[in-house]
Amino acid sequence: MKRRKYQHIVESIVNSKPKQNGDFTKTSEFATELLLNNLNLTAVSVWLLTQEQDRFELVANQGPLSNLRSDNTVECNVYPEYLELLKNSRHIDVNDAKADHRVDEIRKTYLEPFDIASLLDVSIRINGRLEGVLNLERAHEQRNWTDSEIYIACQVADQLALTLATRNSYEQNELLTLFKCAAEQSDQVTMIVNLHTENVEFVNDAYGKRTGQKASDFIGQPVWNLFLFKQKPEYGRKQLERVVLGQTVSDEVELKKPDGKSLWIRYSCSPFITSRGNHFALMTSEDCTEEHRYQEELEVRAWRCALTGLYNRAHFNKELEVTNNGYLFLIDLVGFKNFNDTYGHEKGDALLQEMARRLRHLAEIHKAKEIARVGSDEFGMLINDLKDESIESFTDKLYQHLRAPAQIHRDTIDPKPAIAVVDIISVVELVSPLTSADIALQIAKKKQGKTIQVFNHTMLNAFKEDSEIERDLHTAVRNRQLELYYQPLRNLKSGEYTGAEALIRWHHPKKGVLYPGSFIDIAEQSGLIVPIGGWILEAACRQLNLWQHYNRELTMHVNVSARQFFSGNLFEQVWGLLNRYQIKPQSLILEITETELMEDIRFATNLCHELSELGVGLAIDDFGTGYSSMRYLKQFPISKLKIDRSFISDLSVSKESREIVSAIIAMAKALNLSLTAEGVETKEQEFFLSEQECHQAQGFLYSPALREAEFNKFLEDSVDQKLEDALEETLHLSM
Length: 735
Prior knowledge:
six-stranded antiparallel beta sheet; alpha/beta; eight-stranded mixed β-barrel; about 725 residues
């Protein structure tokens, strides 16, 4: 009951438009205002850690202390011990700022000057990674932080983390949409090959234009039907074998068109693995016949770009090899591929020539050592000495110079440059300067506002992090660092909690609690998901046995990964666990996604029927996001559908989501299936689902995933609360 004292604050934030739109700044301003008005505080602020992880920047600030502060940034190296404490703690509650040793580092410089008596700092985390801090302060009069205050501050910090994650997700979705449009409209041939079946899964219309046949005729067909493999079968087989082994292959080959004319093709084929562990290859190719015709001329001009007149990449690399100091600038035109497809290659070439002219102008003024076109829309520049000008000033000048509107034929174009900067002397002994620039450039292209990024070693470490996570996962399995948390499932009709979903958490010794999103994909790709999934199943069954021993009629939901589902021994494993722990029929429910079921219909159908005969419930997770049909849905012995959180999150603002959810509920009724809605965060969402007669719901409106002891306490409190509510209603009626 105490924890819900300030629950209206969280509900107000969840229901706010800035939060739903992923506007982190406005959400932070709203949250700090709510906390200041509802808690006895002097000041509330939100700070965000920069991408370089070298300082905190102020996002929102409420209270009289804000008028006294002059700095909006805090350098991390000033308070290293306190920063380490933040990284390793959920929150830091300082009741007496004068006596608490944890704030010794900041006492003289900050606490005493502002007469701060009590301090509460709550970390804002995404997948265990520290992204920012929610800061609550009381000045002049010392007062202990209550459990309710700490709890609501943690809840607000979680909502801020969700807002930040939403903002990042929106940015990524926009980039994916741009990429898809570019691929579909490109003159360059693009195709995707399933390395398991060796079938063509996708090919754009450019292939049909080049071969004179319909591109759709090749989709779903063996790769051996493609011209390359028909005309050069042995060569094609060897290249495909290299791709299957994980290598990227590229080459230029001569083929014959149906009319007998010679055609030179430059292609590149790169393998990749999806998040579910499926192996595919992306193959792109372009017609380079004209280049071969003029090969002698190009060899004469080997060091120059014919279009821009600048040096080319080969010459630039040659110069870079003998450069040990100065600055490397790598410039990319964001969205140039889309520009080319929209306006045509002629205007695209004209834009590249204009960018080259501007770069040449700046290079002459600053006596650049080298300037070159190093990619289709990438330029490189080497400058030995900026003299009295700072690197920040020069980079900003370069950015403003390149982004000025350009007159391309009759159109006025606003170029979108992205700039990476590398201090060569700082990296030359560790990694290639050009590699460093490529890493920084990818980050710059994703930025909002000024797309400028100076390389630092944190970026390099991020690329190494995946391999470190895989190594640490092996240790985590051995050293029992994995733990199951349980998120309650609420019966919307009775109000009782009738089940739980088992969710894995990793207690990393250095990074704190990690959520599945930060390591499950790596576990899938490495094959570790099979032993981890087996552990999850056994731990969940063991806990379910304990609940049933204490007469708790609960269902246990357990997610099953694609690799685990198709491993071949899931049936035997489940059968053994049911017998060992004497699980009641239909109390164990395995959750499988739609796309997993569709990977191998025959195998999935047989396995689902076998599991159902054991008395195991089967649920389709994230329903509505896959591609299953009614025919397939009726084919499987499914007992439950789980409506994906993406439809629930915008019920209040999206008519389409409301109609989709209503349709899913109606379909489930027709098929006599149980329904659970995921990600319920507001009373408005709960009301809509109840009105539509959805059976169950789970989400932060009720509780996040909890440890075993916390979950048991939650159930006890919910029963007590229900009794109190019933008693209150009885007394009200009697009056």
